[in-house]
């Protein structure tokens, strides 16, 4: 018997859970962080955008995180998906705030929860594989979010 395909609600919930997990982990590390429920609502006419999670790092930087979750072994974040993050970083710099952006993918399923990510400066495709994934705290350390 063929299994039912999972509905869009499952995929959205998995994404929301990923956002909540990152924000909670950052807060547990004493970094002021918020999941932004209005993320993904890129307003190109006004050049206003919000990433999935915003964090105020102890060194004074503001960090934006664009998050994706997948059960596959690889994921490519498209330029379109990164546009809001890049606009957020540029907007922060316009207001003379040191702002950094990160694209992060969570690989879930089969009892795993591994994370891969990189700093983003431009809206260009970014490829991630499960082979390049770490625990969330290890990734945050590698990205320079925590020290």
Structural overview:
With 147 residues, the protein is α+β, with helices and mostly antiparallel strands. The protein has a single domain, classed as Trna Endonuclease, Chain: A, domain 1 (3-Layer(aba) Sandwich). The chain has three helices and seven strands, in the order αββββαβββα. It has helices spanning 8-28, 79-94, 136-143, and strands at residues 32-35, 53-56, 62-70, 74-77, 99-109, 112-120, 126-129. A five-stranded mixed beta sheet has the order 1-2-3-5-6. It is globular, with a radius of gyration of 15 Å. The N and C termini lie far apart (50 Å). The model has no long low-confidence stretch (mean pLDDT 87).
Radius of gyration: 15 Å
Spatial ordering of strands, largest sheet = 1-2-3-5-6
**Whole-number count of domains:** 1
CATH class: Alpha Beta
- What is the share of helical residues? 25-40%
CATH architectural group: 3-Layer(aba) Sandwich
Low-confidence segments, given as residue ranges, are: none
What portion of the residues fall into strands of 2 or more residues? 25-35%
Continuous helix count: 3
Outline, from the CA principal axes? globular
Q: How confident overall, as mean pLDDT?
A: 87
Count of extended strands = 7
- What is the makeup of the main sheet? 5 strands, mixed
CATH topology: Trna Endonuclease, Chain: A, domain 1
Q: How far is the N terminus from the C terminus?
A: 50 Å
Q: SSE string, helix = H, strand = E?
A: HEEEEHEEEH
């Amino acid at each position: 018997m063929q299994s039912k395909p999972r509905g869009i609600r499952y995929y959205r919930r998995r994404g929301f859970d990923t956002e909540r997990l990152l924000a909670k982990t950052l807060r547990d590390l004493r970094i002021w962080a918020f999941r932004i429920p209005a993320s993904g609502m890129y307003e190109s006419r006004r050049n206003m955008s919000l990433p999935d999670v915003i964090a105020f790092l102890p060194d004074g930087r503001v960090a934006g995180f664009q998050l994706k979750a997948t059960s596959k072994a690889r994921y490519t974040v498209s330029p379109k998906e990164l546009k809001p993050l890049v606009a957020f970083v540029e907007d922060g710099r316009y207001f003379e705030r040191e702002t950094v952006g990160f694209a992060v993918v969570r690989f879930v399923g089969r009892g795993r929860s591994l994370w891969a990510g990189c700093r983003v400066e431009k809206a260009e495709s970014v490829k991630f594989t499960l082979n390049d994934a770490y625990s969330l705290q290890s990734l945050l350390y590698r990205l320079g979010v925590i020290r």
